[in-house]
Amino acid sequence: MKKIIFALAFSSLIWTSKANTMGAIDSKKEEIDVTINLTDVKDDQVLVTVKAPKIKTEEITYSLPKTVPGTYSVDDYGKYVADFKAYNKKGDLLTVTKTDDNTWSIKNAKSLVKITYLVNDTFDIEKGSGFGQDDIFSPCGTNIDAGKNFMLNLHGFIGYFKDKIETPYKVTILHPATLWGATSMIDKNDSTSVDLFEMPLYSKLIENPIMYSKPDYTTFTVDGMDIQIAVYSPSGKFTAESITPEMKTMMTAQKTFLGKINSTKKYTVILYLSTMSPTDAKGFGALEHPTATTVVMPEMMPKEELVKQMKDVVSHEFFHIVTPLTIHSKEIQYFDYNAPKMSEHLWMYEGVTEYFANLFQINQGLIDENDFYSRIAEKIQGANAMNDTMPFTTMSANVLTEPYKDQYLNVYQKGALIGMCLDIQIRESSNGKRGILDLMHQLSNEYGISKPFNDADLFAKITSLTYPEVGTFLTKYVSGPTPIPYYDYLAKVGVTKNTKKIPDGIFLKGQVPYIGVDKETKEIFVAPNKELNIFYSTLNLKGEDVILAINDKPYSLDNIYDMITDSQKWKENDPISIKIRRDGKEQILTGKVKFPYIDVEGLEATDASKAALREAWLKG
Question: What is the pTM of this model?
Answer without folding.
Answer: 0.89
